Amino acid sequence: MGLGLSLPAAAALLAACSGEDPEATRRTLRFVGWDFLPDTIQTHLDTWAAVSGGTVELEVLPVTGYPAAIQTRFRGGDRPDLFYNFTYLLGQFLENGWNRTLNDLPGVEERIDALYPGARSRFVTADGQITSLPYFSAVFMNHYNAAMVEQAGFSGPPQTLQEYYDQCAKIKADGISDAPYESSWLNERIEEYLMATLLGEGITPFDDAAQPVFADDPRSVDVLEWWRAMYQDGLTSPTILTDDNPELIGGMTQGTFAFYAGHDYWLKIFNDVGGPAAADLRMAPMPGAGQTLLAGEVVQMGPDLEGTALNDAWDLLKFYTGADNDGNFTVPLTWVEAAALAVPYPSFFEDPAIQAAYPDYYDLGVITSEYDRAGTPAARALSWYQGFQVKVGERVNDMLAGDATPAETVANMADDAVELAAG
Amino acid sequence: MASRTLSRPVLRKRAVTALLYAALVLFAVWVLFPFWFLVNSSFMTPAEAVAVPPHWIPEEPTLGNYSAILAGQVAPGGAQVGLRVLTALGESFAVGILTVVANLALGGTAAYSMSRFRFRGSRLSYFSVLFARLVPPIAIVAAFFVALRDLGLINSRYGLVVVYISFTLPITILVLKNYFDGLPRELDEAALVDGASRLQALWYVIRPIARPGFIAAACLVFLESWGEFFYALTLTNQLTIPPVLAGFRGFFQFNWTTLAAATVLAVVPPVLLALVFQRYVVRGLAQGVAK
Amino acid sequence: MSDRQFGLVLALPAIISLVLVVGIPGVQTLIYSFQRVPLSDDPATFVGTDNYGKVLGDESFVESLVVTLQYTAGYVLLATVLGLLFALLLDQPLRGRGIARALLIIPWATPVIIAGVMWKWLIDPQVGGLNAVLFEIGVIEDYKPFLADREWALVFTILAAAWHQASFSALLFLASLQTLPNEIVEAAKVDGATAWQRFRGVVFPWIRPMLLVVVVINVIYGVLQFDTVWVMTQGGPGDATTLLPILLYRQLFIFSDIGAGSALAVMLGVVAVLVSSIALILLGRDDPLAA
């Protein structure tokens, strides 16, 4: 019967609940993160340890290659207790049993309920499993060079895709910039841009059953028509298909590009690096009246926790991903100060310490209103979805190269999604 | 007439010499042109590094990138470099040396054997040595992880050395076998006639003569191990220098200048080592085959 | 102990090491390629050649194979020819040769992943030094976005990797050249042979065995190239630089299909063997391994 298997688990639970000898199940936790401010991560872990009496060891891996490194660890049976993860890996980790779901932990419902409603689907699956809590979040915004837009005779940033095209065309025609438009169109990242644009236009990419209903909406073809025109008419950075962070930062701060569509933390990076154009850079909502795409990565819990170690891990996870026991956003505050990273709770933006930590050039009113209308398709957290990201990159590249029409591309991407979902 | 016929070979020789020096300059450009920008950026602020058009030398040179790394401070552009760069350089060095020692011991004897003796399966083993280099690291990294974990060698320099043998040993054997093939067999035979055992012949006769080959193999193995990224990424927590350098490419940061400084620091030790080895290569030659 | 036995004993430690670190994971990859491998604790099931059908049936495999062959051809040619030229040059008694040999180490000491980052920076259409130089000397009339173009992207990912690898080849050639007895060259000079005749008649035959080794190594490195291309283009623009190892990475770490990934890894090994064989046949020796 199942009794033999569940016995150890029951015993651990008993030990944890009965309160006798908590040290028996207490052990040093293992925390794996990627290489962003590792000293600060260590400080946070030390702070938590001092308050809680627990112990935790930090292991840091580089961001470049993190997906391969963390997957290799889990495949090899090495399962840390808490770890950063990319949202697109959530489905696969859940399927493999590599993370512990959080549903049974005390107070988790309050955490989830405190999220912006649009953020919920990142952390909770369609069937209600809570997989993770936010390491950071961001909204997709349109960064623009106000001086260039003004010089081209426009009173403000574009509100629609058509205006976007027109502004870029005018800026280029007037010789203000040879390459007005920049974004992150590097293979797998194209999918995020596609989702941001579809949502902005009010198109539903996937229905509740994760079916690619964007293919049924004729406006999806319009979005791709616009996309192709931007590229083929030479309005984008010529190397937009391979540009990475250094290229886009240099291009924006030096005044080579007029626009950058991407996560809202970029404005701080531009200002920190500085350059002749840095002071002219502003941020506005993405064109389109629909939804804003919510982005960001997560912290997850490993599957091998029980007893006091589990309590410790849960305590640390809460501390790390939101307000601490005193209601202060201790950890997120440092990410705001360092890189304008947010966590998707309304209470986060209402916190005076957080508000004070954002640089003056951030309009928190705009950002919170974007969070109010932010969302992310639930399909993005399914295990087949990473394969879809690769396919979207290939399909859109084919279209930009002139090998497929926008209508064909929409149809092909829908077929890819159905095929991948079927396994 | 006489003077012209005399000067022709001289002129010709001068022309050849000039050509050779021109080629030397081209060679220096090939090596240094890409590298110059790296060195250049390492003395710049992040803002100057992205100036358009690029600056050939820093207008406001700064040692900030280096001092941040050497003193473990926060670098310009916000990178917390800590003292991790220096620690990782030390680990890279240790891994490189250990890998070289293991390679010369294992590969030297095997290459000599494959060059001199025919035993059952000798051809086959030479083939499989070649085949060994064909296995893509990405495909077998999971197997290594499990094995090292069972041995308690995750995040350990010894674990990396074991794994690095997988892709360096084939190279060592290839290089050294070829080298031994070029050495006259009469040397071994003369030693044996003199009453030396086969092991003594290998150690006292062949080893000193083969020094240039050993040093070349050691150089190759050391540098292969020095620059290896994928295994170090997946089997350690940024133990050696390549994964630490990769960490500078964060997504909320722009650390080109710090990365440049750290890379310069990472390239200096092997170049210094190579300068030292250089003399040995020449000396080994003078004592060895050329006689 | 007979010579055969002695040879076997000498080779045994290396053979055992390679069986452990390459043989076992390699065979495991081969077995996986005929299995469906779940990542959970469920056992793997044999699926015959389904994985191979999946890999071969994917249109991106064929495209990637073509790109890989182009890439390898360019890479092997560049890394080998430049390496040979550098070695011949640095073997001449020129002033500054010591410094030049130290320079030779720089590209090889630069970790490949950094070589990629550096070259991407170098050829950037805004901040890159290459555009600035080509523009100044009048080769181009406008800054060129090299990575925007499919062909140029392939060319520069080859250049970046070959920059690193040419030094490796040169080092091997140099080691071989240094064993060339001076008397032979001098004798040829006395006989009135031109430089080209000396190269054809004396130098080339001498380094020929090393040339075969270098070509085989470069083919393997070319076919397995990953790090440099990954940091420069991630396979882009589009699939212009999507080499087979990049497909392999996707198969293993994005699609998480260990069976199909292993099948692809096996195919990759087959491609490397075939390309090496073709290269060796072109060099006029069908059996390079016969000592």
Structure description:
Chain A is α/β, with parallel strands linked by helices and 423 residues long. Chain A has helices at 3-18, 38-52, 66-75, 90-96, 108-113, 120-123, 146-151, 161-173, 190-200, 219-232, 245-253, 266-273, 307-321, 330-339, 346-350, 352-357, 364-372, 385-400, 406-422, and strands spanning 29-34, 56-61, 82-85, 133-145, 181-183, 259-263, 281-285, 292-301, 374-375. The longest helix of chain A has 17 residues, at 406-422. Residues 1-16 of chain A have low confidence and may be disordered. The radius of gyration of chain B is 24 Å and the shape is flat. In chain B, helix 1 crosses helix 13 and helix 4 crosses helix 10 (211-227). Chain B has 291 residues and is mainly alpha-helical. Chain C is mostly helical and 291 residues long. Chain C contains twelve helices and two strands. Chain C has a two-stranded antiparallel ribbon. In chain C, a hairpin with an 8-residue loop joins strand 1 (35-36) and strand 2 (45-46). Chain C is flat and about 75 Å long. Chains in contact: A-B, A-C, B-C. The interface between B and C is large, with 110 and 96 residues.
SSE arrangement:
The complex is a heterotrimer of chains A (423), B (291) and C (291).
Chain A: H1 3-18, E1 29-34, H2 38-52, E2 56-61, H3 66-75, E3 82-85, H4 90-96, H5 108-113, H6 120-123, E4 133-145, H7 146-151, H8 161-173, E5 181-183, H9 190-200, H10 219-232, H11 245-253, E6 259-263, H12 266-273, E7 281-285, E8 292-301, H13 307-321, H14 330-339, H15 346-350, H16 352-357, H17 364-372, E9 374-375, H18 385-400, H19 406-422
Parallel strand pairs in A: 1-2, 1-3, 5-6, 8-9
Antiparallel strand pairs in A: 3-8, 4-6, 4-7, 4-8
Chain B: H1 2-42, H2 46-49, H3 64-71, H4 84-116, H5 122-132, H6 137-151, H7 157-181, H8 185-193, H9 198-209, H10 211-227, H11 230-235, H12 241-246, H13 256-287
Helix pairs in contact in B: 1-13, 3-13, 4-7, 4-10, 7-10, 8-9, 10-13
Chain C: H1 3-32, E1 35-36, E2 45-46, H2 50-57, H3 59-90, H4 97-109, H5 112-122, H6 129-136, H7 150-177, H8 182-190, H9 195-223, H10 227-233, H11 244-253, H12 258-282
Antiparallel strand pairs in C: 1-2
Helix pairs in contact in C: 1-12, 2-12, 3-7, 3-9, 4-7, 5-7, 5-10, 7-9, 7-10, 8-9, 9-12, 11-12
